[in-house]
């Protein structure tokens, strides 16, 4: 069974996991010796792969996103919101979005 079909079946309902999947899950949750953890902390943070921009869109507008390296975010210029990238993984759930500075400045001007 492929990874996608296993994921789909896991999302459909609480069935017993195949032994290989269960073994990997248990193995991943077991605490590791401190030497492994120290090696893990020495790894540089993963970089965002710009090739993902071909597939990622804003969940609100369904429009393409722009990668901004300095704050390490994906930007929706139309809605002026930004999504964080953590360890090379874009967090594009709506709750993770923040307003960009331009939008905040406009709101402040409207309030005064």
Automatic annotation (TrEMBL):
InterPro entries referenced in this protein's UniProt entry, alphabetically: Trm112-like
Record keyword Transcription regulation present: no
Pfam families named among the record's database cross-references: Trm112p
Subcellular location: Mitochondrion
Region span, Disordered: 22-45
PANTHER family: PROTEIN PREY, MITOCHONDRIAL, ZGC:162634
Family per similarity comment: Belongs to the PREY family.
Identification of the protein by name: Protein preY, mitochondrial
Species name: Monodon monoceros (Narwhal)
